[in-house]
Request: fold
Amino acid sequence: MTIDEINALEQAEFIDRFGSIYEHSPWVAEAAVMARPFLDAAQLISKMDTIVNAATNDQKLTLLRAHPELAGKAAIDGTLTNASKEEQASAGLDRMLPSEFDALTSMNAAYNERFGFPFIICVKLTDKAGILEALRARLDNSRDAEFHTALEEVAKIAQLRLEGMMS
Reply:
């Protein structure tokens, strides 16, 4: 899809198409549609990032909590979004050894208990070992640092999803 085609979409079509860029958070696309026309994909994702960064802390927390736990309940019961399913599979999270699954499940629970939102990492840019290593390391972060890091990871995910839609 070209930027001209994106700019020509009806408002509802734009929201339908780009509402999933941020997991279960169409409010970002609803705000972004009002900023058209965009010069290119970089300007579109930049606008979406600006919208997220300008959101309240409660909105940001809701955005983080909209993300599924890696290899968690949604993966097991088959309710992941297609994008999350493909992303988790790309990192091998659908092919974990029992020991890897147990470690991830245990650390996911500790992370969520400590921070109040699921561990988020752009899995397309790493692998199982990298995910487990990052999770171990990030459990030692302060809540503020982790909140910021999780939002940075969400931005990476959104950018890759948009690039995938445009290619």
